[in-house]
Amino acid sequence: MATAAVTAERENYLNQQYGIRSWLLTTDHKRIALLYLASITFFFFIGGFFALLIRLELLTPAGDLVQADTYNKLFSMHGQVMVFFFLIPSIPAVLGNFLVPLMIGAKDLAFPRINLLSWYLYAIAGLMYIHCILTGGVDTGWTFYTPLSTAFSNTKVIEAGLSIFVVGFSSILTGLNFVVTIHRMRAPGMTWSRLPLFIWAHYATSIIQLLGTPVLAITLVLVVLERALHLGIFDPKLGGDPLLFQHLFWFYSHPAVYIMILPSMGVITEIVPCFSRKRVFGYEFVAMASIAIAVIGFLVWAHHMFVAGISLYSAMIFSFLSYLVAIPSAIKVFNWTATMYKGSIRFSTPMLYAFGFIGLFTMGGLTGLFLAALGIDVHVTDTYFVIAHFHYIMVGGAVMGYLGGMHFWWPKISGRMYPESWGRLAALIVFLGFNLTFFPQFILGYLGMPRRYWQYPPEFQVLNVLSTAGSTILAVGYLLPMVYFLWSMRYGKVADDNPWGASGLEWMTTSPPPTFNFEETPVVTWEAYDYAHIPDPEEVAVER
Amino acid sequence: MAVESHELALRHHFADPEQQRQAASLGMWVFLATEIMFFGGMFCAYLIYRYWYFNEFAAGSRSLDITLGTVNTAVLICSSLTVAMGVRAAQMGKNKLLVVLLLLTLVFGFAFLGIKGVEWYQKYEEHHIPGPSFDASDLIREYPQIHIDPQHSQIYFSLYFAMTGLHALHMVIGIGIFCYLTYFAVRGRYTPEYHTPVEIGGLYWHFVDIVWIYLFPLLYLIDRKPLG
């Protein structure tokens, strides 16, 4: 405790160098993580702005706030910004970048300059996409379906496609760095079975990024070539097959959902044992469940195409395979619950987000089973049921995990504590706002309201008003952490090295860590989540 | 001197040169895995359309210049040989030999691109470039025995240009890498203790070569037996 005052003055990665050059030319994984944090937060608010406009338009049954064409652009760009510029880089590029070397006892990622390159690719792609937004935007939906995207759309498809091509390579390079780092840079004694499950989750995520993203890249190249040079690959008028596009697109874009959710699961698996003061239940099962989700995730893509005209037999096989994803997902949920069983649970902010994650992810996952069933899927395809389902996974799951992780590791990142009561309040607001926004959409979808329409019959208005009201509450919930995180950087209580009494190497170095992470390379002689031997900081305080 | 140069090349975050070498090598292998998936999307499209539009694919394939294609395949195989020998030369510390072999590789690389350019120009003259000016009437005249749909023929040439174009782009990147390697080889940077860039640059070159080994039969040798 007495070291707290000293910690603030000690040399760390934040105060070692100052000036814009020391940030833009840094190869320190922790600084690159913060570059990513600033950039993805920026895009999160752009995507959120589009979402609010969508919800405002849907406040009334008539299409009155924006034109139909504008509405098409709004939901297209909301999806593309949120998926490619926020969700996919969110946890891996910020928390993963910051924590992967720290958690395995390395000085940096294996390829620090490639890490910086990946951020520059992200920034270039981001600028391209902003230019695209400002000069007219894109209206193909986030999916770029052909032949709409290659022959009919009059918007900036080429520019949007190329920007997502570039951001894909940023994602590939992050994944490549993680895989090599996890294989080659572990500290002595840090065996595979002692790795934190956050690392296992990121390893599985990286595999998807490495093997899935190139397929999206080549697909977008073909779309751009078809649109620009009339190479006939997908356009039926040129003899091509639009279904081929859908297969190639979803071959990446379904596993992309697991790029978003797996790192979140990794975050939750760190938070739950810490605030239950127990070793995680079934370590091997949770680790292998991550790998299983990554592998099975590659075999289910055609469940997005049940009504697109694929054969009934392949639809049945893809339906069956889609059900299989539920097994490793359920293993995780059960193991988190079992970890909490008879634990001494503390309701700190990260734990509140973890609770939120488990509940919302379970809802999202179970409704995913509805959609994997052929009959129900035909009924609710392209309705708000689907929208609600994937927002429960991506926002209720991935973003809850991201916020939980940001709170959990904020003391390590910034060296300061955020205000705990504000944190709990924001977590509660996010949870309530989220459910008010998206739960009515399940009902709307089941009643038959289609997605991507800017007007709707008056009988749907009550549920739409509820949803729009919820989205404003959710927006407050997202703004609050942003405000108090910034506030805490200056005024927050100085954080201890290990304020939560958590396991993991990242808590054994100072807060914030020095540039090379550890004074000397740690030697690991204990198992992961050894909470039986780590004192709870609050109980220690009581004893004193 | 050798010891000094590899200590210079050891980056701060690695414990020892062996760890650094293994990381770099694994990094390149992982990258090549992503490259396989990158080309894989197009190979997938190729397989489907070849199965559907076999006649057009066979006719399109016949219209390619098999002599130039074969020569180009030989050129690339020779370049892979010089790369493999170059890696060996770097391991043995024969720096002059390494420079010669790297330069030879570059010559082969440029030769490949030159020949490829000649082939593309032929296609341009034959109006076989997809787009508004595409014309398959010469193929229809030449092979009256089989039914040829010009649109399906255009798909063959779309894939031909997309696949060989992407491969050529990888060749250009490879030539860039080998110019870099040659520059530092001339300055004597690579030693038996430190020659990882030569090794992983070589891995990349071999990969691009192997892609061509698949492209050649898929595009040139679909059906060459006499029609009758």
Task: Report on this structure.
The complex is a heterodimer of chains A (544) and B (228). In chain A, 69% of the residues lie in helices and 0% in strands. Chain A starts with a helix and ends with a helix. With 544 residues, chain A is mostly helical. Chain A has 17 helices and no strands. Mean pLDDT of chain A is 94; it is low at 1-8. Chain A has one domain: Up-down Bundle (Cytochrome C Oxidase, Chain A), CATH 1.20.210. Chain A has helices spanning 3-9, 20-24, 29-57, 68-104, 112-134, 148-152, 157-184, 197-229, 242-276, 283-297, 312-340, 349-372, 374-380, 384-414, 420-447, 461-491, 537-543. Chain B has 228 residues and is an all-alpha fold. Chain B has one domain (36-220): Cytochrome c oxidase, subunit III, four-helix bundle (Four Helix Bundle (Hemerythrin (Met), subunit A), Up-down Bundle). Chain B is built from eight helices and no strands. In chain B, helix 4 (66-92) packs antiparallel against helix 8. The longest helix of chain B is centred in the last third of the chain and has 37 residues, at 150-186. The radius of gyration of chain B is 21 Å and the shape is elongated. The model of chain B is unreliable at 1-6 (pLDDT under 50).
